[in-house]
Design a protein that fits this description.
Layout (H helix, E strand, L loop, with lengths): L5 E2 L7 E7 L11 H16 L4 E5 L2 H13 L7 E5 L7 H4 L2 E5 L27 E7 L2 H4 L4 H4 L1 H7 L6 E9 L5 E3 L4 E5 H7 L5 H12 L3 E5 L17 E5 L2 E5 L9 H13 L9 E5 L6 E2 L2 E2 L8 E3 L2 E6 L4 H12 L4 E6 L10 H4 L1 E4 L4
Parallel strand pairs: 2-3, 3-4, 6-7, 9-10, 12-13, 17-18
Antiparallel strand pairs: 1-5, 2-19, 5-6, 8-9, 11-12, 14-15, 16-17
Amino acid sequence: MSQPALRFPAEWEPQSAVLLAWPHAGTDWAERLGEVEDTYIALVAAITRFEPALVCVADDDVEAYARARLSSARIDMARVTFVHAPYDDTWLRDSGPITLVAEGGPQAPVAPLRREKAPAQRADEGRRAFRLLDFRFTGWGGKFEASRDDLLVERLEQAGIFLDSERQAIDFALEGGAIETDGDGALLTTWQCLHERHPGASREELSRRLAGWLRQDRVLWLDHGYLEGDDTDAHIDTLARFAAPDAIVFQACDDPADSHHPELQAMAAELAALRTRDGRPYRLFPLPWPRPLMDGGRRLAASYANFLVVNGAVLMPAYGDDADAMAAAVLENAFPGREIVQVPCRPLIWQNGSLHCLTMQLPEGLV
């Protein structure tokens, strides 16, 4: 059988919506729910300036409350859709769907899916425009309860929100924050995270599996880079991100006294050694380093690399630091022609994540 015409689009390609889940008292946000809700309101307001927001809610009461909070903030509610689905946590970058797009439009041929238990063949199977890759979500290697999160993609599919799509369940632990694509067949990831999830697999085996499932022909590995307070085992979306097929934005650290300095300097050297498909060095855009943000004696994982690209803009995490403006200037250079919108994210990093971790973009036409 010939290779199906599927590809993994880059984040800057056209989107139909951004998926996120509203925080409530039954999530880990309970202790600081008020200030986290304020951040969510700012985030939804920023998203809906450029495209719709698809907001998961746990039940009718959570929907009514979220609707009231967003309406009172004068958000365009015509661009907000609520969908009921139970969830353990709200980090939908890691529990949401990773979407492949069929080349050539909705009727482009796509190979039949491999399923652990194959259902009866449908007449239209193999001709869907989108494939929802539903990897196992294990709560970042079993650190947290994740049984409801692991079912999220299936629940959303059952709710009927996705158009012209098929879901492929894959019995392999992989989070969306662990991978970054340039939309042209190159995948960027970290060895620390994937090795932690699959300690018995070699780099060659992991490269082969990732390339096959995600339709990539190059897997680029980083061996360095981490953030204190990060419990994802070095997700790439806190460290380095494609801004174009030949450009990478990354979190730098220029303070030799900071504990991150050796690792992030080593990561910067690794990025400088990478080459594009045609053998050239990548254009690199180092992001500034914010002052240490602490919660008691605990360092919080503040990264400007955890931005979200939406239609016509880049939503950037802001931490109330002097470096916020410098980070915005770097992103403006890396993403020419897109508006840079700062979203206050300091309350989020109390739970070790930021703006990109909360969200999952959905390609144009999927919803």
